[in-house]
Amino acid sequence: MSEALDTALATFLPEEDTQEPDLQKLLEEYVRLQEQKEQLEVRVRKGEERRRAMIHIMDDMNQLNRKLADQRKAMLHILADYEQDRRWLAQQAERSDNSRRALLHILQDMHQSNLRLESSRKAMIHIMGDLRETTAEMQRREQELRDKQEQLVQAGKLATLGELTTGVAHELNNPLNNIGLFIGNAIDLLEFGKPDKQRILAELHQAMQQVRKATEIISHLRTFGRAAAVSREPVAIKPVIERALSLMHEQLRLREIEVAFNLEPDDPIVIGNAIQLEQVFINLLTNARDAMTDAPRKTISITSTVQAGKLHLIFRDTGAGIPMGLEKRIFDPFFTTKEVGAGTGLGLSITYGIIQEHQGNIWVENRPGEGAAFFIQLPLAHTKRAEGKIFDESDAHPDS
Length: 400
Fold this sequence. Notes:
This protein is of the alpha+beta class.
């Protein structure tokens, strides 16, 4: 500080005055310099304070800059995250827009589908109505067909009865003649005054036997020709064949046709209708009868066997056989190989239908020049005789 003062004095005082200074001036100058010095010191202190304040401010500014830099970095991260979020939201918005469009398309498709479903439902209602009408019509037609088939079967039976009339009349003529003879004998005994009670009773008993025989024949014809509801029950086959032969017996005898039997010793039982089966056997016997008109040897053989739960029947004749190429047509309705007016062509067709209704099969094996053989298969009844009612002759010939 003294060096600075000396430098100031040297500045204000010339060299020639230093040797002989004026004390008063020096003191004044000293005071003035002292004041300047104090002022300078104050200014220096203020400058130092300002410098320190500036340093503090610069430190604060540096801290603020660092904070701002950190905040800028944080802001950059925030902006980056915001950009990512914005892009994600944009993608989500695009996806939502696509989903909305897809949903609109789906809703439109659903609406179209609903419209189509409504149309389909209306069409289905119409179809169901038509189907109900068609079903009712089919049921009505089926019922008409069944009625026509029953009428056809009945017509076939009546046609068969018409063909058997001559033989049946002869069958009835014999017992009627015998009845007249026995009653005539009884009347003669009474008229000639020979009341032999035992002999008269014997003649009357014999007449009653003939009455029962005639009644049996008539009852058989009535049962066979009756149009009754078709029922299914256990049926013994052998009695049915015997009843068919009893109706055909006279016609076969007059044509000198022999019948050979080879039936199962244990009478097989099937589930069916005895009257319909009798009609089948009569049709086959009639067909064999007509086929042997000009045959040198006239024989009908009837064979039955049981195999694998089925009854096998064979009706074989020694006629001329079926013309070649017609074997597949003989079961067709109204088809016949007989001369015009000699047959209706319904017998074998009705026979085929009856066997089919009995869950069976029928076919023919032809031997031209040697005869034909009709094969019938019927399922056996899985029922013992003791477990169910079996159709027998008493069922076929009721008293009323």
